[in-house]
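Blackboard transcription, Thursday session:
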Amino acid sequence: MFQANPYAIPLFIGLIPVLSFALVAWRQRANQSARFFLLYALASAAFMFTYAMELLSARLPLMMLWLKLEYVSVLSVPVIWLLFILSYFGYDDWITRRRILLLSLVPAVHLLLVWTNEYHGLNWRTTGTQVVNSMVLFDRTYGAALYIGTVYLYLIALAATIITVISFMRAPERYRGQIALLLLPVGFIWSGNVLTLLDLTLVPKLDLTPFGYALAAIPMAWSLFHYHLFDLMPAAHRQVFKGMSDAVIVMDAQDRLIEANPAATQLLRLNSTKAIGRPLAELLPDTPELIERFRSVTETRADLHFGEGDNARAFDLNISPLRDKQGLLTGRVVVLRDVSHLKRAEALIRQYAVELEERNSQLDAFGHTIAHDLKAPLSAVIGYSDMLMMFEGEWLSPQAKDYVRNIQQSAQKMERMVTELLQFASLHDIGGVVTQVDMNQVVKAASERFKIDIERRCVRLDIPPDLPPALGHAQWLEEVFANLISNAVKYIGKDNHSPCIAVRGSRQGAFVRYEVQDNGLGIEPENQKQLFEMFARFHKGEASGLGLGLSIVLQIVKRLGGRVGVDSEPGKGSTFWFTLPAAPQPDPAPLPVAV
Ligand code: ADP
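(Written on the board underneath:)
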């Protein structure tokens, strides 16, 4: 039944690498090319195995059985290889179920004829055995089906080879080695096949094709492990290039079109096949001035605008050079990104900003008018209630006097509120009034305002005589210090036995930092962040207020280009600080020159 046959040995050994490829491809099966490669490796392994078994068979019926099994892989391998090549080089859209079925039609009929050969003899006209070197080998004469089927398989292999060669020529340099290796398996396999068909084998009747597969394992192994076949796929590059929304065109040194992605062919209305190789000036006759402008520019970025109004389109143009290994210019890559929507959005934002500005100033004017108009009736309420108390007070019952006092207090509070809101609203107008400010005068004026309170509460107020000047607006900085000093006094603490407040100023690089420190109530850490927000108040029982003072401080300092902050510890006191751009320092006095 079986015989020893040394030729089976290389086939069995060859199975090991081929099956290892199958394993590598299985691990990467998420990738379509890897799946086709897996099929290819399995079909090749089946071919080698069945042929090895045929060689080990000593009788014709057993031989025929293996041979018929062998034909399943013999006929499917070229089709699978073609599918692999198509997928590997990024022509996946070509691979459809219908096309695979069509491609497989001839091999399927051929296989049927092989399996039913004894009834018609179309594949082998005669079958028998022959003893060569004391081995029993299959002997045959071929029928028409074999020739037709083989020609078909050759055509399929030829198609795969042509695609590989074209991809090789188009591929960037670094992929070329990898692609060239994909040509070798086909070469080995088909030379084995041709030699066998022409009966040119060293051992007569020995089919060399499966040995071709064993040999093909060598370049495959190299491709897989050296180039990481599936990691660095030209297909991936092709897909990225094809799928890019930016228009990309590649030109050679003579400005002829070498490659254009679909976005570019669509944008420039190019016929992708006919345009290749033609000069760009010829392909884009409507834009001679653009072609001229960038004719010899190898590297640049530019904004391009076409059309007007709603049809206006804007592009971001990027040209970069292509150079060979010696650094010589071989061509240019041009990328055009459509930024029309961005430009439209920018214009819209600009328009919104203008509208917002307008509405803001309308709102400011409105607030200003209301606050201003409120002042007059309010002054009347205060004035008349004062007069009522002064001139008619003796006629009023104690109850009525209480009511009038309440009116007075509420009216005064409202007046303070209106005044502060007016200040707040007018902060928008302080730009353009920045000058060098003598901070000693400013602090003196601010502290004067609270002289009575300071004396009443026996607060020690330390103000150094040499506060550094800063850039700002004196009137507004007086408000800042007034707010900070008044708060320090207000929140100094009723049981404070040695209340003190210290004002300090020091230059820090391009800025001056001013501080108002007190040893008062301090502020809880969780409240410190909100201090500068409008209407934030924390020590409500301690002093009256509106919660606007610190937000005014923040607005003023921000407008003058500085920063504000506080360091505080509850029960120990607070240090409010702010910075302002420093005034330029006077030039040092010139040194006396000896005559
Ligand atoms: P107002 O003083 O009118 O309440 P501000 O905006 O000036 O409003 O201050 C907000 C809150 O910050 C105050 O209610 C107070 O709780 C706290 N605060 C401000 N300055 C000090 C300070 N020097 N010490 C302790 N708390 C302060």
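Lecturer's comment: The chain has a mean pLDDT of 85.
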